[in-house]
Amino acid sequence: MKARDIMHKGAQWITRDETLSRAAQVMDLIGVGALPVSDANGKLCGIVTDRDIVVKCVARGRDPTKVTAGDLCEGTPRWIDADADVDAVLHEMETHRIRRLPVIEHKQLVGMISEADVARHLSDDRVAEFASHIYADAP
């Protein structure tokens, strides 16, 4: 099984200069809780989540119509090739303790893999192992 077999197709990303207000609107429109963020050249530079918007912007009294998605992008963005084996997908997510993983093919975003996708496509034992890695000693 490959990443493309378990991913949610039709993922969409926003550019780093889009406001968090716009990011929230896009999330609402397409029914997701996270959006990959690209730079001006279409290169992945991070992910912004609905929780990021609430905790890192609204809760701190910042204005989501002025703060950009790029302002919240931190660290090295993680992604996986569409043809990667599911074991590689799980290794990437477990090693970096991430819950959402963009899927890239020919330098284009083609999907996202979330915890729900893992749960839908893998055995209960493998899902339990995955969860133990993601949530063990979580901060």
Automatic annotation (TrEMBL):
Domain CBS: from-to ranges: 7-64, 72-129
PROSITE patterns: CBS
Keyword Translocase among record annotations: no
Keyword rRNA processing found: no
Superkingdom of origin: Bacteria
CDD domains assigned to the protein according to its UniProt record, in alphabetical order: CBS_pair_HRP1_like
UniProt xrefs under InterPro entries: CBS_dom, CBS_dom_sf, Diverse_CBS-Domain
Name assigned to this protein: Hypoxic response protein Hrp1
Organism of this sequence: Streptomyces luteosporeus
